[in-house]
Amino acid sequence: MNTLSERLKHALSAAKMSQNTLAEKVGVTQQSIQRICSGKTQKTGNLMAIAKALRISPEWLQTGVGGMETNGLAPLDHKVTYQIPLISWVQAGSWESINDSFQYGAVDEYYPCPEKHSDATFALKVVGESMSPDFIDGEIIFVDPEVEPKNGSCVVVRQNGDSEATFKQLMVDGSDNYLKALNPNWPKKIIEMLPDATICGVVIGSYRKRN
User: Fold this and answer.
1) CATH second-level architecture of 83-207?
2) Structure pTM?
3) CATH class, 4-63 region
4) Are 84 and 122 within 8 A, CB to CB?
C-alpha cells in the first residue's frame, strides 16, 4: 500500500466502516472522503481526525511507516482537531489552481472549523469594514470551494483580472448576478458580477475573537 488512497480504503475495510460514516465522525462531507479514496486528494488537513475515527496510526495512514493499529487510541502527542489553514487573499484568488499542490506544513496559523466542510476549505482574515457588522475587520471566515453558491450566500470572488479575492454577498436577479457589501454605509454597496468572475468558495462559518 504505497498511497494514502490505498491505506485509507484498507483501513475502512478493516473497520467495516462506510465512507459516509467516516465523514460524519470526522465532520466533513462524504465527497471529501471519496476524493481521498479515489486518489484525487493526495493530502488532507483532517488526517488526524480520520486516524482517530478509524482508530489507526496517523503515521501509518500518512506515510505507510509502522503498523496500522494503535489499540484504539491516537498517540498522546497528537492534537486531533479539524484544522483549517489561514491563507492570504492572494492565495484565495488562485486557490483552485494551487489547492492540489498546497503544502499545509508551510502554514503558520490554523483554525478549528466546527462546521462540516470539504478538504479544500480554507480560512481568511477579514480586512476592512465592507461586510460589517455581520463580519468585522480581523474576523476569521471559513470558505468551502465545494459548497454550491446560491442567492444570499456570502462568497469569496475573484474578478476583473485581479489576483486578489474579495468578500461579498451574492445576489441573483434572474440571469444577472451582483455582489453586495453588507455594510449599510458602504459607498458602493452593489457591484456587477463581471463575466470573468470566479467564485472561489462559499463562507460556511466564522470565528470572532472576543477580548
Assistant:
1) Ribbon (2.10)
2) 0.65
3) mainly alpha
4) yes
> Which is it for the CA torsion 78, 205, 29, 98, positive or negative?
negative
One digit per residue, the tens of pLDDT, for the chain of length 211 reads: 789 999 999 999 999 999 999 988 888 888 889 989 998 887 777 888 888 889 898 888 988 888 887 654 444 344 334 578 899 988 888 776 666 656 555 577 888 887 888 878 899 999 999 999 999 999 999 999 989 999 999 999 998 888 789 999 999 998 899 999 999 999 999 999 988 899 999 999 999 877 6
* CA–CA gap between residue 126 and residue 139 (Å, rounded): 5
DSSP state of 190: E
For the chain, domain boundaries: 4-63, 83-207
Nearest to 106, CA basis, from 20, 45, 41, 197? 45
Report residue 82 as a C-alpha cell. Answer: 479539524
